[in-house]
Amino acid sequence: MVRVTHDSTPALTAPGTIVHRADEPDAPWWHDAVIYQIYPRSWADADGDGIGDLPGITARLPYLRDLGVDAVWLSPFYVSPMNDAGYDVADYRDIDPRFGTLDDADAMIATAHDLGLKVVVDLVPNHTSSEHAWFQAALAAAPGSPERDRYVFRDGRGPGGAEPPNNWSSVFGGRGWTRVTEADGSPGQWYLHIFDVTQPDLNWHNPEVRAEFESILRFWCDRGVDGFRVDVAHGLVKEDGLPDWHGPMGVFDEVDADTGPSGIGRDVEELEGHDGTMVLDHSATGNAPMWDQDGVHEIYRAWRDVLDSYGEPDRILCAEAWVKPATRLARYVRDDEMHQAFNFDFLDTHWNAAALARVIESSLRSNDAVGAPTTWVLSNHDVVRHATRLGLDQSAPRTNGIRATDPQPDAALGLRRARAATALMLGLPGGAYLYQGEELGLPEHTTMPDEVRQDPTFHRTDHAIAGRDGCRVPMPWVKDAPSLGFGPGDDPWLPQPEAYADLAVDQQAGVDGSTLELYKALLRTRHQQCLGRGALTWDALTSETVVAVRNSSPERDADVLVLANIGPDPVPLPDGEVLVASGPLSPGHLPADTTAWLRVATA
Ligand code: NOJ
Ligand code: MG
Questions:
Q1: Which residues contact 417 (CB under 8 A, 6 or more apart)?
Q2: Each residue of 556-599: pLDDT tens digit?
Q3: CA distance 216 to 232
Q4: Residue 212: CB partners within 8 Å, gap ≥ 6?
Q5: Is the pLDDT of residue 262 over 50?
Q6: Strands 559-565 and 594-600, bridge-based pairing
Q7: Is 232 left (phi over 0), alpha (psi -120 to 50) or beta?
Q8: 382 lines ligand 1 (CB under 6 A)
Q9: Does 517 participate in catalysis according to the annotation?
């Protein structure tokens, strides 16, 4: 077994030494923006069909202006058979009727802009839906045809080509290849699908594919969007020759140093009968022939040129790239490539002061080395919500979904830590991403009935892995309303857990101490104090159980001390005005699992 080591993690800089320098006061908007992720299916349903939609989103946008975020990112709303919740796109230039029309999209973008919110949309370039016209044409065409060359079709191995071209698994479980039947009825070639069988991978060596996506970027820029979140940005180019791979395919799961591959990776190995002895080396995702290949970068340079041609204010690209280590991820945000990349190392870090301090430092240093701001994120539509994740055993690897039969989280502890984690995150320099409902402290739905689960992961792993439905449950807006105010109907596409009623927006708005009011206070203070553009030094209070960050800036005459108590005991609070705290403070002390922001004299 290849042991996973963390030797490349830099040691912590001594307190008082600058880790990261302040940004310019007139830095572009995306350097310190807080971007709120809307999962369109689950945010607001205007027409009452139980599925969220664009008119629902437009009507609720003032809520986000009041929350205090700078931008929204919407998961896909394009025409799709919804086998992977819209990440299987059949037409990149039109809206799925369940979500509305292009006119609705225009209205949503215009309303957001009127409210001072920027709009980032999702781009899915690694694969199309199998219902996309290109794939249908490829199926109808012959092996070796230009239509097939837009995808990754290969002859099979073994007698009669009956074995797949290589041993790759799908990230969602099962085989990564499916065999087609040729026009004459004979068993034919195989096509690659790193995700679901209905998500054929595109061939990014084909110039037609490149031209098409540049055209799609222009289509949405011309409609006024401010940027793109790029799905599976580390997957577009595969290693030449498509060599076999004996490591896990896992994207959404952590590989644990001691226990080996978890979740998707391990279960795929078991399902496929591979020997399962090799662990993905965390020091470089690029060891895997389908991830983080050098060839992806020229694609993003070309896209950057397209976006830059629209002038100022910048339109941005944000990479969804599950890439390690941080220095490798930083290559996606070099100054002629993307603007941002999600910081999944931060999301993946356990509730442990030393680990958090290390990941904060390595993230900032790696991005500083290429002149890019860092982003921070704790939740999204692919991971267990952080209010639940942080209430689970912190020594175990991150799980992909939770079922009623699995160990259940400590909900109160999870929420307390989640509030502290968010307060730590929003005190750091750089940009940040929030996932819908985290501002309400929403937990994962951990007891969802199996019959309603939709994530292909659940089905492709023969129910061994719960998958991601539990974090995708419709938002609670009003406690005493059908579907908790999600829409006029009372049958949302996924059931809401009981706990959501008391967490509804109307139960928290204006209520002192609520999670919603905490988020508003954090966002307001972060903005007033320009924390996203600050410099970062470790404060001397940093310890085995405390993360103590000094955020300083030429834009203000005092430092903001961000103090997160990750340990089990209260710690003394230094002198200073408390600007915000993630929970109640005891006299002179910061309780366990609590973060406070203090205005303190410049060091
Ligand atoms: C990443 C997306 O966030 C996820 O939801 C999707 O299943 C995969 N990419 C495949 O598109
Ligand atoms: Mg609807």
A1: 351, 390, 391, 593
A2: 999 999 999 999 999 999 999 999 999 999 999 999 999 999 99
A3: 17
A4: none
A5: no
A6: antiparallel
A7: left
A8: yes
A9: no
Q: Is the CB of 84 under 6 A from ligand 1?
A: yes
Residue range(s) in the chain whose domain bears CATH number 3.20.20.80: 24-126+207-520
The answer to whether 595 and 563 are in contact (CB under 8 A) is yes
Mean pLDDT of 87-94: 98
CATH number of this structure's domain 133-192:
3.90.400.10
Provide the token pair at 211.
Answer: 């031209």
DSSP letter for each residue of 539-567 = -TT--SSEEEEEEE-TTSSSEEEEEEE-S
Task: Read off the DSSP letter of residue 438.
Answer: G
DSSP label of 182: P
User: How many Å apart are CA 337 and CA 510, to the nearest integer?
Assistant: 42
Q: How far apart are the first and last CA of the chain?
A: 48
320 belongs to the catalytic site: yes
Judging by DSSP bridges, how do beta strands 227-230 and 153-154 pair with one another?
Answer: unpaired
On whether the CB atoms of residues 78 and 92 are closer than 8 A, the answer is yes
Of 254, 320, 438, 469, which residue is the catalytic one? Answer: 320
d(CA 561, CA 580): 11
Is any ligand 1 atom within 6 A of the Cβ of residue 201? no
Instruction: Give the integer Cα–Cα distance in Å for 420 and 380.
Output: 18
Q: Where in the chain are all domains bearing CATH 3.90.400.10?
A: 133-192
d(CA 36, CA 268): 33
Q: Is the CB of 348 under 6 A from ligand 1?
A: no
Q: Report the nearest-CA residue for atom 11 of ligand 1.
A: 87
pTM: 0.94
The CB of 196 under 6 Å from ligand 1? The reply is: no
Digit-coded pLDDT (tens) for 529-546: 999 999 999 999 999 999
Q: Report residue 2 as tokens.
A: 């290849």
Q: Which atom of ligand 1 is nearest to the CA of 127?
A: 11
Which of the 8 DSSP states describes residue 303? H
Which ligand minimizes its atom distance to the CA of 53?
2
| Distance from the alpha carbon of residue 555 to the mean position of ligand 1, in angstroms | 39
CATH of domain 24-126+207-520: 3.20.20.80
**What is the whole-number distance in angstroms between the Cα of residue 126 and the centre of ligand 1?**
10
**In sequence order, what are the residues at sequence separation of 6 or more whose Cβ sits closer than 8 angstroms to the Cβ of residue 171?**
194, 195, 249, 250, 251, 252, 264
The DSSP secondary-structure symbol of 375 reads: E
Q: Which of 53, 88, 96, 231 is catalytic?
A: 231
What are the structure tokens assigned to 464, written together? 């061994």
**Ligand 1: does its nearest atom lie under 6 Å from the Cβ of 195?**
yes
Q: Using the atom order of ligand 1, give the atom closest to the CA of residue 126.
A: 11
Residues 44-55: tens digit of each pLDDT: 999 999 999 999
Kind and range of the H or E run holding 255: strand 255-256
Distance from C-alpha of 79 to C-alpha of 92, rounded to nearest angstrom: 7
Please tell me the distance from the alpha carbon of residue 565 to that of residue 547, in angstroms, as a whole number. 7
List all residues 6 or more positions away from 480 whose beta carbon is below 8 Å from its beta carbon: none
Q: Which stretches within 396-485 are classed as H helix?
A: 411-426, 456-460
Return the closest-CA partner of residue 122 out of 227, 224, 201. Answer: 227
